[in-house]
Recover the amino acids of this structure.
């Protein structure tokens, strides 16, 4: 099943870094879906430090397009983004894309009662609260990608 999505880059998001991940080495390929440029840079730096190859999407529409083009080992999905939020993007991924068992991890600033449950109900597999530390990210990668061996945080 093919999903065609017209992609218009959001003004706050960095352009997708699809080619950067394929050139970065043999580690797991992660799609980071985040609309905040500062959060993109921080998470990207931590993931690369842990040995991951990273692509960045600025919203759910860009994420769907990239998942349709590239094979990812895991998706880190912000929940609240413009154009298509993480909840809607995750539902569409689970409904339409053959990689329905692709691990999708919520990465959000929302830490209120019921937020974790809303993420799981949308089809996400796990939940990280921002700000995310490198040790938490390393533990998450080891839990969801046991064949990969992220390096211990310094």
């Amino acid at each position: 099943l093919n999903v065609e999505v017209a992609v218009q880059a959001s003004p706050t998001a960095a352009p997708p870094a699809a080619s950067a991940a394929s050139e970065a080495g043999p580690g797991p390929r992660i799609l980071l879906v985040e609309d905040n440029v500062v959060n993109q840079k921080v998470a990207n730096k931590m993931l690369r430090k842990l040995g991951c190859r990273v692509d960045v999407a600025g919203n759910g529409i860009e994420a769907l397009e990239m998942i349709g083009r590239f094979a990812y080992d895991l998706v880190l999905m912000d929940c609240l983004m413009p154009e298509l939020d993480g909840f809607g993007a995750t539902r569409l991924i689970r409904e339409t894309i053959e990689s329905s068992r692709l691990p999708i991890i919520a990465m959000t600033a929302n830490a209120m009662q019921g937020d974790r449950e809303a993420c799981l109900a949308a089809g996400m597999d796990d939940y990280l609260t921002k700000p995310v530390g490198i040790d938490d990210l390393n533990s998450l990668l080891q839990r969801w990608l046991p064949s990969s061996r992220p390096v211990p945080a310094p």
User: Anything to note?
Assistant: Helices lie at 18-23, 37-49, 60-69, 86-96, 115-121, 134-144.
